[in-house]
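Re: beginner question about structure tokens

> Can someone show what the tokenized structure looks like for a real chain? I only ever see the sequence side.

Sure, here's an example I had lying around. Input first:
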Amino acid sequence: QVQLVESGGGLVQAGGSLRLSCAASGRTFTVYAIGWFRQAPGKEREFVAAINWSGEHTDYADSVKGRFTMSRDNAKNTVYLQMTSLKPEDTAVYYCAAGPKSDMKIPEVKYWGQGTQVTVSS
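And the corresponding structure tokens:
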């Protein structure tokens, strides 16, 4: 069993930066890839980024490549999503997720966090 708790969301102006954290509890955290998904009002939840269990491989959605960076610290059971050059269209609830691989699809997610709101003003 893995429990995921996100933090770091908030309100930021376009062009600004935020760092999201996902803290995990559970002894099996390191076997999972950890991903971030987001859901804007009226839209489906979509993949943002993910990192494999060792931290050596990451995957990003095309919409965030070059702007968002994932990292993980297994000693702290924490994963980070550094978001830069934020745009209003990045506004969404961001969810942390644990799954079998970094090429993560929603049906493959085993655990979800509760979500954290990110709002980017223009």
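Each token stands for a local structural state, so reading them left to right follows the chain. The radius of gyration is 13 Å.
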